[in-house]
Design goal:
- By secondary structure, the chain is of the alpha/beta class.
- The protein has 2 domains: 28-113, Leucine Dehydrogenase, chain A, domain 1 (Rossmann fold, 3-Layer(aba) Sandwich); 139-272, NAD(P)-binding Rossmann-like Domain (Rossmann fold, 3-Layer(aba) Sandwich), CATH 3.40.50.720.
- 41% of the residues lie in helices and 16% in strands.
- The chain has helices at residues 6-26, 43-59, 74-86, 105-111, 123-130, 139-150, 170-178, 198-204, 254-257, 271-291; strands spanning 2-3, 33-39, 62-68, 92-95, 159-163, 187-191, 207-210, 228-231, 235-238, 246-249, 263-264.
- The strands form 3 sheets. A 6-stranded parallel β-sheet has the order 1-11-8-7-5-6, with helices on both faces. A 3-stranded parallel β-sheet has the order 3-2-4, with helices on both faces.
- Strand 5, helix 7 (170-178) and strand 6 (187-191) form a beta-alpha-beta unit.
- Helix 1 packs parallel to helix 10 (271-291), helix 2 (43-59) packs across helix 10 (271-291) and helix 6 (139-150) crosses helix 10 (271-291).
- The protein is globular.
- The model has no long low-confidence stretch (mean pLDDT 97).
- The structure holds nicotinamide-adenine-dinucleotide (NAD).
- The site of nicotinamide-adenine-dinucleotide has 24 residues, from helix 10.
């Protein structure tokens, strides 16, 4: 079994990005600048945004955190987004999800200018992705594709089962892996909460991408020996033995499946760190595009 080490791979990507930033600065240009908008005090969201800001510092990017109170209205948030769209000093920005219930998430994501949408969530960028056009790929699927590519995991002609059809993970993953591209050319089945006989599908899969958010859902009985396992899940499970009172658990029973898989991502240290690295990569791309205009 080969561990698809997202921590190590993302560190290598960050070194590449840092050296590109050094080059940009050498040419007398300003560093790429990422802004993050956080509404409210959701613990996991604060952790994610904090990690993104820290990663910016590490590679030499500028970063701005816009921390808004939970009672921020939809209108106030949209005003912030328009200001970021117009600000020439900001190359790209993200709005950390989930947003408080009184704010229409779709409306907010649509308001982000596609050229600054480094999360790749805007319909224009999702559409471009579906049509094989250059775009900002959403960071988690992009990170998985990069991981598969760097480890040279064979995907051409393989049967992939993606579990989960969310707009940010499952759906784009199913599209990317079916495309004619590196780490693509696969035959893809997308499964979801209404799928019947999931085990029959997963037992036939050469590659399984588990993105449903149910801790340790995928067990060894559901996996063909030699399969490639990508675990996207991140769930906080109560664990009194930990200082924080919880541990992070994936959607895969790593203990049993790692014994039969050919490749597997750990949680933590697999897909998670790759997501942040690809957000940085998208921001670098946004900066390069911005500078060439
Ligand atoms: P989501 O809740 O939006 O979607 C879950 C999907 O799973 C749905 O499409 C649903 O139909 C499907 N599903 C639910 N129960 C199922 C079942 N019993 N059988 C088959 N399918 C089922 O979730 P999401 O935003 O795609 O996130 C999924 C998981 O990935 C979560 O744990 C989330 O925290 C994690 N995540 C991790 C990263 C990362 O960087 N590693 C990024 C995004 C999300």
């Amino acid at each position: 079994m080969i561990l698809l080490d997202g921590k190590q791979t993302s560190a290598a990507i960050k070194v590449e990005i840092a050296s590109a930033v050094t080059e940009i600065k050498k040419q007398g240009k300003r560093a790429p600048h990422l802004a993050a908008v956080l509404v409210g005090t959701n613990g996991a969201s604060m952790t994610y945004v904090g990690a993104k800001v820290k990663a910016c510092e590490l590679v030499g990017f500028s970063s701005t955190l816009i921390d808004l109170p939970v009672e921020t209205t939809e209108h106030e948030l949209l005003v912030q987004i328009h200001a970021l769209n117009e600000n020439p000093e900001i190359d790209g920005f993200i709005v950390q999800l989930p947003l408080p219930k009184h704010i229409d998430e779709q409306k907010v994501l649509m308001a982000v200018h596609p050229d600054k949408d480094v999360d790749g969530f805007h319909p224009m960028n999702v559409g471009r992705m579906a049509l094989d056009l250059p775009t900002f790929l959403s960071a988690t699927p992009y990170g998985i594709m990069e991981l598969l590519e760097r480890y040279k995991v064979p995907t051409s002609g393989k049967h992939v089962v993606v579990i989960g059809r969310s707009h940010i993970v499952g759906r784009p993953m199913s599209i990317l892996m079916s495309q004619k591209r590196p780490s693509g050319d696969a035959t893809v089945t997308i499964a979801h909460s209404r799928t019947t006989n999931l085990e029959k599908l997963t037992l036939e899969a050469d590659i399984i991408v588990a993105a449903l958010g149910i801790p340790e859902f995928l067990t060894a009985e559901m996996v063909k020996p030699g399969a490639v396992i990508i675990d996207v899940g991140i769930t906080r499970v109560v664990d009194e033995s930990k200082k924080k009172g919880y541990r992070i658990t994936g959607d895969v029973d790593f203990e049993s499946i790692s014994k039969i898989a050919s490749y597997i991502t750990p949680v933590p240290g697999g897909v998670g760190p790759m997501t942040i690295a690809m957000l940085l990569k998208n921001t670098l791309l946004a900066c390069e595009r911005h500078a060439s205009k």
